[in-house]
Amino acid sequence: MTTQKFLARTAVLVATTVLVTGAASISKSWAEPQPGPKQLVDEVWQILDRNYVDGSFNQQDWKAVRQDYIGRSYSSKKQAYAAIQQMVAKLGDRYTEFFEPQAYNALNTEISGNLSGVGLELAANDKTKALTVVAPIEKSPAASAGILPADVITKINGRSTQGMNINDAVKQIKGAAGTQVVLSILRGNQNLTFKLTRANIRLNPVSFRSETTAAGKIGYIRLPEFTQTSPAEMNRAIVALEKQAVQGYVLDLRSDPGGLLDASLKIASMWMEQKPIVSLVNRQAVRERYATSGRSLTNKPLVVLVDGGSASASEILAGALQDNGRAVLVGTRTFGKGLVQAVQPLEDGSAIKLTIAKYYTPKGRDINRVGITPDVIVGLTDDQKKTLVQKRQVATAADPQYTKALSSLRQLIQTKAAAPRQTAITMRTVLK
Prior knowledge:
- Strands 1, 4, 5, 6, 7, 8 and 9 form a seven-stranded antiparallel sheet that branches.
- α1 runs antiparallel to α2 (62-70).
- This protein is of the alpha+beta class.
- The chain starts with a strand and ends with a helix.
- The protein has three domains: 10-107, Transcription Regulator spoIIAA; 117-202, Roll (Pdz3 Domain); 207-340 and 355-416, 2-enoyl-CoA Hydratase, Chain A, domain 1 (Alpha-Beta Complex), CATH 3.90.226.10.
- The protein is built from eleven helices and 20 strands.
């Protein structure tokens, strides 16, 4: 599957630095006056020519593509935008896309954690091209209505989605808060219809609590997305739980589609110190390595919950914690997005998002289209997923993945508690 984040929304990106699974900013190369339509088309071509990850440009004669589009006449920005969309489509990369000014403004709003739409993460199956739900956003209209991961959207307002790309689907599903959209869903052999009222959705980057369990007093932290405020919220959560003297942690990254690379790096540093996190490799095979900085906030045992909706920045964090032996992963295989995007804003208010690199875990794993396999695999039935999503019974006794996480955490806590005693016995033996 390939993913496109969406609320009937587009991918969560940052316009000036690094994003999604992250990316480096691209230097500006335009003059102050706004470019004309033809200049805008050429500017986008130049950005892709310098930075796109695939040097073959999807087996295209990229210079011939430029000649084709520069050789055309454009009488309006609208014509230029349509040409840019066509040019970008030639790359065959669903992560690379062009944002008109209005869509780019919406993208910037999303980065701050303010979203508008029905609350879905959408994917396109590589083989069938079917528009598939990765996960509904917590407390969104889609989650409240009972839409589930792996649901296939067959119609939008009565229009078939067969052959429809994700960008077209986004345009049809998104809209002003208070308006409605009807989605036809295929779930297994069931045909379902959902009439959803669009809403403004505020992401709560981090929620947390402490509770007494068979494993002892533990801290539970839920991270639904990597936004600009997520690191500060995660810091607040860990500090508060440390003051409560918890003995270990469960970090819930299920249905977390990712977000900002910078947020992922900062959060990784809260759990580990002096450890590698991720490597980015561009088309020139230049490898940029990222590692934790400063001191971690805690070294207590950690279990991380993941599933098929854990993607992008979530996989960077989960992969780093797993590869460095810092945490045990529980759940199901993650989504498998190992590509890096950057957003370059343009002078007229539009922007181009493009794939600029691949990323690898600390042990050199390429997880793109493969995902990360948890250390402990625990699946859910469709009924369990519906109960967890619709009735908000996540991280309770009704949540099999959470209960298994607690069991795994208990083992980690017991092992850590036993280690000092073993060391003391060894020392006494030596001293006799």
